[in-house]
TrEMBL record, chain A:
The keyword Magnesium does not apply. Belongs to the binding-protein-dependent transport system permease family. The chain crosses the membrane at residues 23-47, 89-114, 126-145, 157-178, 199-221. Its main location: membrane. This is Putative aldouronate transport system permease protein. It is found in: Cell membrane. InterPro entries: MetI-like, MetI-like_sf. Keywords: Cell membrane, Membrane, Transmembrane, Transmembrane helix, Transport. It comes from Paenibacillus methanolicus. It holds the Pfam family BPD_transp_1. GO terms for biological process: transmembrane transport. Gene3D superfamilies: MetI-like.
UniProtKB/TrEMBL annotation, chain B:
It is found in: Cell membrane. This is Putative aldouronate transport system permease protein. CDD domains: TM_PBP2. Belongs to the binding-protein-dependent transport system permease family. Coiled coil: none annotated. The chain crosses the membrane at residues 16-42, 79-103, 115-135, 161-185, 216-233, 271-296. It is a multi-pass membrane protein. It comes from Paenibacillus methanolicus. It holds the Pfam family BPD_transp_1. InterPro entries: ABC_transporter_permease, MetI-like, MetI-like_sf. Keywords: Cell membrane, Membrane, Transmembrane, Transmembrane helix, Transport. PANTHER family: ABC TRANSPORTER PERMEASE PROTEIN, LACTOSE TRANSPORT SYSTEM PERMEASE PROTEIN LACF.
Length: 310, 306
């Protein structure tokens, strides 16, 4: 090790970034590794896009191509020619996401507020009551039967909302955020005679906006991407959320064809099956991809809050 | 505490208790009451009897599960996949976080981070569609590339041995951005004076990374890994189900406890068996998370879950 040599040079250059060969080497490694991984993360999305714009005949002959040799919007024109099913699925997902996010966020915040109130006598007991459910559960079957046999929620819009309404992890993150709001606010409001619920609604909620935005987006993403509850509980085609609709269509093109022809127009065309699958995938992911640049930083924030105190 | 005292406390806190009521009700209905349904694991379920009226059959459901050989298979798969995910994902995320921190260009860093975070945001159904695009025998992109170069196409959906590698890559792909954000936050919070001190002592940048950055990450790594180990018997249902589905040919290498329970419930309708397996998983999960928490607690009391 040429310790003495580097020592003198670093002393000479003091605080600024040293431009030694080691730094240069790391920069090169860094740029290469990260570029490769970023491309690796991104290529699958490009594949879907390019496949959805390929001619069906070329896909059948040559398979999906990363760099398409043909260009066609046939898949999209078929998709938008009979849009009823897709639009209905969109409607279900939007409704479920909107209702679920508002209700879930409100309940998460209210629960978290109470749990972090230092003057609330049973806050530790209740915290444990919630937390224990992450350690132990009855498993899938009792939960499933509860929803089907006792709550009778099969094939309802509610079954897509209720089971995901609250999440212990979000309550914990919200709680740790709210405990950073000065206690004096609650205390002085109490002296002024405000009730706990009013304090929460009028003082705490406005102050918790950053956490509400972050947790709200996590909840919304969960609802938007949910297909699991539909897989278990939805058989009525009119209640299929978007992701589950996509799941069904990917597995069953014949069903897709029938569904598309249901509108009465007897069209016996052969569907561009393969490109259509990819077009549907893109249409189902579209809103997330469009919103992504704007919402990303809230997720980064949320993860950072969460990792500070898990 | 006497009754009056308790009633007095309840009255004093009634607003707060009311505010907690919806959440308490939620977890009672969706978590605590279903726990009573564990009795199904010891029953021969029938529809007329329901949860509580069906006849008991002792440990038959468990016996069937263990004697069929499925118990060992799905438990092994679940644990091995999770171990592979933990190792590969964390090594990758730490490496990328360190490199992102060191690489100069601000814009490059931002764009790379955004792109790597993207897979986290899409549903497993979409991942399944992408997998289809890549792996399908007739039209899949991988086979398109292979045939372009004059090679034989490969039948991925009928070859179990490819799947451990595929699933590890998919998991790494989906979680890379997410994990990198967490580790990057930990790196950013390292005191810069330590770097300066290392530099004055003549450390080159690699020595600085291995002697300063990584040791400072140990607490975060240990906590995240221990917590992941606590969940080692929970398979990621969304991933396995959308990647493999009901393709029985692959089950020897891809079936995890969660997919097994799901199939027993929905396709073969064996309520008792799937309840038993679910219970078995809950017990295993509870034991491992308690052990993991004990380990975290010994390491750093403040970071323990409870």
């Amino acid at each position: 090790m040429s310790a003495s040599a580097t020592q003198t040079s670093s002393k000479a250059q003091t605080a600024g970034k040293r431009r030694g060969t080691d730094v240069l080497l790391l920069q090169i490694i860094g740029y290469i590794v990260i570029t490769v991984l970023a491309v690796f993360c991104f290529v699958p999305f490009l594949l879907v896009v390019s496949s959805s714009f390929s001619e069906e005949q070329s896909i059948i002959e040559n398979g999906f191509q990363l760099i398409p040799t043909t260009f066609s919007t046939e898949a999209y024109s078929v998709l938008f020619k009979y849009p009823e099913q897709m639009l209905r699925a969109y409607g279900v997902t939007i409704a479920v996401t909107a209702i679920g996010t508002v209700a879930g966020l409100f309940l998460t915040a209210m629960t978290a507020y109470v749990l972090q109130r230092k003057d609330f006598k049973w806050r530790n007991q209740f915290s444990f009551f919630f937390f224990f459910t992450t350690l132990f559960s009855g498993g899938l079957v009792p939960w499933y039967l509860m929803i089907i046999k006792y709550l009778h929620l099969k094939d309802t819009l509610l079954v897509l909302i209720l089971p995901m309404l609250l999440n212990v992890f979000y309550i914990i993150v919200m709680k740790s955020f709210m405990s950073s709001i000065p206690e004096a606010i609650t205390e002085s409001a109490k002296i002024d005679g405000a009730g706990d619920f009013r304090i929460f609604m009028q003082l705490i909620l406005p102050l918790a906006k950053p956490a509400l935005a972050t947790i709200g987006l996590f909840i919304a993403l969960g609802y938007w991407n949910d297909w699991y509850n539909a897989l278990l509980f939805i058989s009525n085609e009119n209640l299929m959320p978007l992701q589950y609709y996509l799941y069904k269509m990917l597995g069953n093109m014949e069903g897709m064809r029938k569904a598309m022809m249901q509108s009465g127009a007897v069209v016996n065309v052969s569907l561009p099956t393969e490109s259509l699958k990819m077009a549907m995938t893109l249409v189902a992911t579209g809103p997330i991809l469009l919103a992504y640049p704007f919402i990303q930083r809230y997720f980064v924030q949320g993860l950072t809050i969460g990792s500070v105190k898990g | 505490m006497n009754r009056n005292g308790l009633l007095g406390e309840i009255r004093k806190n009634r607003a707060l208790l009311l505010m907690l009521a919806p959440a308490v009700l939620f977890f009672l209905v969706f978590a605590y009451v279903p726990m009573a349904g564990i009795v199904l694991a010891f029953k021969q379920y029938n529809h007329t009897g329901g949860v509580f009226g069906s006849p008991w059959n002792g440990l038959d459901n468990f016996r069937f599960f263990f004697e069929s050989g499925n118990a060992w298979l799905v438990t092994r798969n679940t644990a091995l996949y999770n171990i592979a995910f933990i190792i590969v994902n964390n090594v990758l995320q730490i490496t990328v976080a360190i490199l992102l921190f060191e690489v100069a260009g601000k814009w490059f860093r931002k764009i790379a981070q955004s792109v790597m975070f993207l897979p986290y945001f899409i549903s497993w159904v979409v991942v399944g569609a992408i997998a289809y695009n890549l792996f399908n025998y007739d039209v899949g992109t991988i086979n398109s590339i292979l045939t372009t170069f004059g090679m034989e196409p490969i039948d991925i959906y009928n070859t179990p041995s490819y799947w451990p590698v595929i699933l590890v890559i998919v998991s790494a792909w989906k979680t890379l951005g997410y994990g990198t954000v967490m580790y990057l936050a930990a790196i950013t919070s390292i005191d810069t004076e330590m770097y300066e001190a290392a530099e004055i002592d003549g450390a080159n940048i690699f020595q600085r990374i291995f002697k300063v950055t990584i040791p400072n990450l140990y607490p975060t790594i240990i906590i995240l890994v221990l917590l992941a180990i606590g969940n080692i018997f929970r398979g990621d249902f969304g991933m396995f189900y959308n990647m493999v589905g009901n393709n029985g040919l692959l089950f020897s290498n891809t079936d995890v406890i969660d997919t097994f329970v799901f199939r027993s419930l929905t396709t073969s309708n064996e309520i008792g068996l799937s309840a038993a397996v679910g219970f078995y998983q809950s017990i295993l999960g509870f034991a491992t998370i308690m052990l993991a928490n004990y380990a975290v607690r010994r390491y750093d009391k403040d970071r323990a879950l409870f």
